[in-house]
Amino acid sequence: MGKVYEFLDDRLRAIRQDIILQQPPPSECIPILEPIVRFYAFAAYRHCEDKGDQFDPVLNHGSLLSCLKCLMIMYDSEDHVSEDRSEMEALYLIINLGHTEALIRSLTLPKHIRWEL
After folding, report:
1. With CB atoms 3.0 to 4.6 Å apart as the test, which of 31, 46, 86, 101 could cross-link to 116 if both were Cys?
2. What does the domain layout of the chain look like in residue ranges?
3. Sign (positive/negative) of CA torsion 97, 99, 102, 107?
4. What is 2-116's CATH number?
């Protein structure tokens, strides 16, 4: 799976760079970023015990966190209704356990999203 991960990571990084350069509206970015977040989260789970050279958990975590932060900014910038927002908010909270900003964010979310967490 190492070669597949490397290829997908490279392509997803290019997509993220295009999003930064082109700055499309959040309504177009959110459906692109949510599957990317899932990929990095799954890769972290799948490779958590790997000792090989082909997977770098630090780089994967950085990419995951970067995508999640971007998503959180986009969710906040407009009230985009995404069926997957509560999933992404929960993942953001789990990944940032121990960080006050994530806790404060979760407490200030609209009630309908908090109830789903």
Report:
1. 86
2. 2-116
3. positive
4. 1.25.40.990
